Amino acid sequence: MSTSYRPFRLLLPAALAGILAACAQPAPEAPKQPPPGKSNVAMVSEIRAAGERDKSVINVHPLIDPGISALKDAARQDERNGNYKDAAAKLDQALKRNPDAPDVLQDRAEVAIYLGDFQLAEKLAHQSWTLGSKQGPLCARNWQTIVEIRQQANDQAGAESASKWVGECREPGVQRL
Q1: Exposed e or buried b per residue across 76-109, where buried means at least 16 C-beta atoms within 10 angstroms of its C-beta
Q2: How deeply is 143 buried, as exposed, middle or buried, from its count of CB atoms within 10 A (0-12, 13-18, 19+)?
Q3: Which of 34-38, 92-96, 99-103 has the lowest mean pLDDT?
Q4: Is residue 4 domain-resident?
Q5: 18 in a domain, yes or no?
Q6: pLDDT digits (tens, 9 = 90+) for 14-59
Q7: Whole-angstrom distance, CA of residue 126 vs CA of residue 131
Q8: How many domains does the chain have?
Q9: 8 Å CB contact between 108 and 91
């Protein structure tokens, strides 16, 4: 072996060690996920607050079948106890008795949010609005449901659009002099 290759023989192990060391370095950090949105409980609180804030002159309260009323009351109790699946089952029973009840559809949409089924919640809120009075607290809850779901999906344009509809639910009274 010639002496001219001797420096390369000494450099080769050092170069291989450097390459292996580069491979052993930790991988770059994965991009950070956006912070999680509101909790499901906070979303429902916002929805109900929108209905309570609505001071429309119009607030439709249809006559309710006593059986549906009892199911709604039992569902509300289940909800307070954190038994969301039981609440959903009771509201589903109420909807079997009257599938076009806007208030029951909205209640069921809110329970769907507790359960994390945002697609169902949005569908039910739209259906409730379609069948409802288009004004008043129920309307505000319908559209606030959509606001919350759009925000959860990081759809700011959809959330802003739905937020405008929340305001459209309010029917101010006639100013009298």
Answers
A1: eebbeeeebebbbbbbeebbeebeebbbbbbbbb
A2: buried
A3: 34-38
A4: no
A5: no
A6: 555 555 555 555 554 444 444 467 999 999 999 999 998 876 655 5
A7: 9
A8: 1
A9: yes
